[in-house]
């Protein structure tokens, strides 16, 4: 992972790792759809989802921003969005939640959601 990605400024095809501040900045500045993976290090299903998210980030590079937000490090954001189980994927368009998936799901399920919002 690049240094830029760790700061929340990833390159196309990379998954951006967000702090609470970077999450809020991304929500107000990004015109592309943003898929945020709410996760935690101790969560086995979250770890199983990681390679799927990485693959989709490369496939949709430049069309969708893929980001991860650790709920243990950013409990304020997790609480604000009512995250009760992880992994939870939330798709934002212009900072507004438009879709949500809770739990570990197949890649095709996530992709079918994305196709509704990607031009």
Q: Can you tell me about this structure?
A:
The chain has helices spanning 3-7, 20-29, 44-59, 75-80, 107-115, and strands at 15-18, 34-39, 65-70, 88-93, 96-102. By secondary structure, it is of the alpha/beta class. The protein has one domain (3-115): Glutaredoxin, CATH 3.40.30. A five-stranded mixed beta sheet has the order 1-3-2-4-5, with helices on both faces. The radius of gyration is 13 Å and the shape is globular. The N and C termini lie far apart (27 Å).
Short overview:
This protein has helices spanning 3-7, 20-29, 44-59, 75-80, 107-115, and strands at residues 15-18, 34-39, 65-70, 88-93, 96-102.
The number of strands is: 5
CATH-derived topology: Glutaredoxin
- Structural class determined from secondary elements: alpha/beta
Q: Count the DSSP helices.
A: 5
- Architecture, according to CATH? 3-Layer(aba) Sandwich
Oligomer: single chain
CATH superfamily: Glutaredoxin
Helices and strands, with pairings:
Layout (H helix, E strand, L loop, with lengths): L2 H5 L7 E4 L1 H10 L4 E6 L4 H16 L5 E6 L4 H6 L7 E6 L2 E7 L4 H9 L4
Parallel strand pairs: 1-3, 2-3
Antiparallel strand pairs: 2-4, 4-5
Task: Jot down its keywords.
five-stranded mixed beta sheet; alpha/beta; Glutaredoxin; 39% helix; 5 strands; 119 residues
């Amino acid at each position: 992972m690049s240094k830029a990605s760790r700061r929340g400024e990833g390159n196309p095809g990379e998954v951006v790792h967000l702090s609470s501040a970077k999450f809020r900045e991304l929500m107000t500045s990004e015109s592309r759809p943003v898929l945020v993976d709410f996760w935690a290090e101790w969560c086995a299903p979250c770890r199983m989802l990681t390679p799927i998210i990485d693959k989709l980030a490369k496939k949709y590079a430049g069309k969708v921003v893929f980001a991860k937000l650790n709920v243990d490090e950013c409990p304020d954001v997790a609480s604000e969005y009512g995250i009760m189980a992880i992994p939870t994927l939330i798709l934002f368009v212009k900072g507004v939640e438009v879709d949500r998936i809770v739990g570990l799901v197949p890649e095709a399920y996530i992709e079918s959601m994305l196709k509704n919002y990607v031009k």
